[in-house]
Amino acid sequence: NRRIVLASRPQGEPVANNFRLETVNKPVPAEGEVLLRAVYLSLDPYMRGRMNDAKSYADPVAIDDVMVGATVSQVEASNHPDYKVGEWVLAFGGWQDYLVSNGEELMKLGDNPSHPSYALGIMGMPGFTAYMGLLDIGAPKAGETIVVAAATGPVGATVGQIGKLKGCRVVGIAGGEEKCRFAKEVLGFDECIDHKAADFAQQLATHCGNGIDVYFENVGGKVFDAVLPLLNIGARVPLCGLISQYNATSLPDGPDRLSLLMGTLLVKRIKMQGFIIFDDYGDRYPEFAKDMGQWLGEGKIQYREQIVDGLENMTTAFIGLLKGENFGKVVIKINDP
Ligand code: NDP
C-alpha cells in the first residue's frame, strides 16, 4: 500500500518536503468490512487548509497521517453483504492505494460507470458546490450579470455554464489567454478576463457595463478588490473559496479596506454568504444529481478534466493547483481499473 503522508506543515506555499511517499502493508478487511483499491484520487484546494494546524470547519491532518481526499475506488475484497468485488464506490480514502471501510461513508457508483472519475468533479463535490452556491445563495435571474473567477476550474466552469442556462450574462476571470479563450469558446461564457493583465480591473469594469448582480467568490484578493466597486444594489455574493489567500502567512499589505467593504455591503444592501457544501446542503445532493445528469446527457454542460498519472506526481500537481497551473479538474490516476 503506497501512501502520501503529511511530513511537515508548510509555511506559505507547500513544498515537496511537506509530503512523504511511503509503503506500508496492505490492510486486511475484517468481518463486515470491504477492501477498496483507489483508481482515481481527487485534488482540491481545500486540502491546503487541512495542512495547517488551525481550527476550521474540519480537523487538520496530523503529522505522519495520510493526506485526506476523495477517491473513486473499486472493491477488491468484501466481507460486507452490501458490496461485491469489482463494484465502484466514491470514498474518502485519502492519498493512498488501499482503504478498509465498514461501508458507512461510501457512495455506490455501480458496476460499470461510464465516467467513474466524474464523481470527483462535475457529478461530485465541485459540481454540487457550483450548483447550490449559485442557485441557492446567488439566486440569479435571467438577464442579470454573473461574475466568477477560477473560471475554467470545476467549480467556476460549472457556475458559469449554469448561469448561462438560467439566461444570465456571464463574465469569467481566469489566468492566461488560453484559459480565457476556452471559457468563451467551449464553456460559452460571454466574456473572460485575464486577471494577470495589467489593466485587469479596467477590463472587468468595461465588460460589466450594467454592474455585477452575482459575484461567485472563489479567489479573493485583488480580484475581489476589482469586483467590489462594480457590485449592484441587491447583489448576492456566494462566498465559496479564497484560493488567493490559502498560502498566505499574514494579512495583506494595507490600506485596510474593511470599512470600504462593510460600507459597500450596507449602502448597496448586498448579501454575502459563506457555505460549506456538504455541511450546509448534503441533503440536497439528489436534486443536483438529477439536474446535472440531465444537463450532461443533453450536452448542455461541458466538463474538462486533467488526468495526471501516478501517485508519485500527486504532490507536484497539488502545489501547481494552488498556483493555477492546472487546467480543468485535476484527477490523479493511481491504479488501473
Ligand atoms: P480550481 O481547479 O479552479 O483551481 C484553483 C484555481 O484558482 C486555479 O486553477 C487558478 O485558476 C485560480 N487561482 C489560484 N490562485 C489564484 C489567484 N491568486 N488569483 C486568482 N485566481 C487564482 O479549483 P476548484 O474549482 O476545485 O475550486 C474553486 C474554489 O472553490 C476554491 O477556492 C475552493 O476552495 C472552493 N471550494 C469551496 C467549497 C465549499 O464548500 N465552500 C467546495 C469546493 C470548492 P486561474 O489560472 O484561472 O487563475
Please write out the topology.
Layout: E1 2-6, E2 19-23, E3 34-42, H1 46-50, E4 71-78, E5 88-91, E6 98-101, E7 107-110, H2 125-138, E8 145-149, H3 154-165, E9 169-174, H4 177-185, E10 191-194, H5 200-207, E11 212-216, H6 221-227, E12 231-239, H7 258-267, E13 271-274, H8 277-281, H9 285-297, E14 305-309, H10 314-321, E15 329-333
Parallel strand pairs: 8-9, 8-11, 9-10, 11-12, 12-13, 14-15
Antiparallel strand pairs: 1-2, 3-4, 3-6, 3-15, 4-5, 5-7
The structure holds NADPH dihydro-nicotinamide-adenine-dinucleotide phosphate.
The site of NADPH dihydro-nicotinamide-adenine-dinucleotide phosphate has 31 residues, from helix 2, helix 3 and helix 6.
Give me some keywords for this one.
337 residues, alpha/beta, Quinone Oxidoreductase, Chain A, domain 1, Rossmann fold, 2 domains, seven-stranded mixed sheet, six-stranded parallel sheet, 27% helix, globular, binds NADPH dihydro-nicotinamide-adenine-dinucleotide phosphate
Q: What report would you give on this structure?
A:
- By secondary structure, this protein is an alpha/beta fold.
- It folds into two domains: 2-120 and 304-333, Quinone Oxidoreductase, Chain A, domain 1 (Alpha-Beta Complex); 125-278, 3-Layer(aba) Sandwich (Rossmann fold), CATH 3.40.50.
- It contains ten helices and 15 strands.
- It has helices at 46-50, 125-138, 154-165, 177-185, 200-207, 221-227, 258-267, 277-281, 285-297, 314-321, and strands spanning 2-6, 19-23, 34-42, 71-78, 88-91, 98-101, 107-110, 145-149, 169-174, 191-194, 212-216, 231-239, 271-274, 305-309, 329-333.
- Strands 3, 4, 5, 6, 7, 14 and 15 form a seven-stranded mixed beta sheet that branches.
- The two termini are 16 Å apart.
- The model has no long low-confidence stretch (mean pLDDT 97).
- The structure holds NADPH dihydro-nicotinamide-adenine-dinucleotide phosphate (NDP).
